[in-house]
């Protein structure tokens, strides 16, 4: 009744808007009316209809109300409080909301924490009754080989930084299953927007050890032309966006990329990776809401490793981790054991299918642990106990657990293990030697690839830099061509 009164009052205030080209008045459509809503592809709505559709919410009885009773209510005067008494509901965007007389605040959290999906136990055996996506011997062995390769690469590059051969590095130690298993569940057509701890995703797609070395050393063969810090990888041919230092900025970009895939009717999705610290950024919340409203096929993959550099999750938020936040934005989610390669693979495989087939975003929270320091600029023993790190390094190591499962299927042997580790180490050391000897990009490359015609202010800056280098040559590297 109150809704009909509001509708009549709005119509009286906007008489010029109620007709099309002098024709008969058009009955406005609003939430809760019996008239069908406009559909995509129909003629533009008159202004008053747009007003009602976007901003009008009707309040009406819903307990056995007949159309005759509703018509009679339309002739009554406006009720003093705007409601008609009895059981009521409001037809609000998103669905009908019932009223109640009791004041009832939602609890701050559920009594039980959301459970974590797991396939392998700590001994590498499948849990009885577990459901997971089957993997072939070929895929399983490749997943294990790449996890070992990633671990070796991280350790050698970390040592290279400590020797002063590269300026910066960070490892994925303890998170190898997240990298490789999630990548294995994707298609090469899926677009990846990483943070900075997902080199294994790029490795799985075909990025070579030499390409990794070229980027870390910033030589002439580096696709970023030496402009980025080490580990800021990127590859156009592998649909892997270049790593960006600012936290969480890649999340809204991923939604836009996913929506473009949907518009083009591509059989692909976007996936973006981020840490638990990134969920405290505004871009995280904006991206989730953006994705939910636009129904974009994007997978939000959170590496909840317990620490945002030196800040533990207990000091970041009071909610039950990250997965619970998806519900607030209308996003389906799952919590998964990030140190269980089969669980990660299965979860991402299912998430990808849902994202593409149903046109929806999915939030995956992987519980894991950062065994290494945050980066070469960090000493994690200053803020967390050494025995905690050691426990995760040994008892909960994802590589060891997955190897037990692969070997239990008779797909791997100690001899193959030895050969793999020896070969990868040799290839990587050779790649580092080649990358180190290669010439650096010239100074001029600092000022290209932004403008079609370099503006005068950038030309002045380039000349000033050259003059400064010539004046103080000892302060600049000798292997950078001027």
Automatic annotation (TrEMBL):
Gene: LOC101765211
Protein species of origin: Setaria italica (Foxtail millet)
One of the Pfam families matching this protein, by short name: E1_dh
InterPro entries (UniProt xref): Alpha-ketoacid_DH_E1_comp, DH_E1, THDP-binding
Cofactor (UniProt): thiamine diphosphate
Signal peptide: none
Residues of the Dehydrogenase E1 component domain: 146-442
Protein's name according to its UniProt entry: 3-methyl-2-oxobutanoate dehydrogenase (2-methylpropanoyl-transferring)
Subcellular location per the Swiss-Prot or TrEMBL entry: Mitochondrion matrix
